[in-house]
Amino acid sequence: MASIGIDLNTAVWRKSSYSNGSGGDCVEVADGLAGIVPVRDSKLTHGPVLTVTAPAWTSFVTSLKDAPDRQTA
User: Fold this and answer.
1) What average pLDDT does the segment 54-62 reach?
2) Which of 16, 40, 58, 65 could connect to 27 by a Cys-Cys bridge, CB 3.0–4.6 Å?
3) d(CA 39, CA 48)
4) C-beta of residue 28 within 8 angstroms of C-beta of residue 13
């Protein structure tokens, strides 16, 4: 995998409030990085990270919240 030069060694990850404690759909994001939002599977903390721009992440989360048929855990 190609590196894009972002050091995530000091990133502070937080688990989604929709993740559960029994190994379910666990998504973590790291906050506080200028202009980007790293996203990963909390079960694979040393695995791949998807990095999106902050505006794209905001749009994604807003669209999920606004979806009329959104399922809740």
Assistant:
1) 92
2) 16
3) 9
4) yes
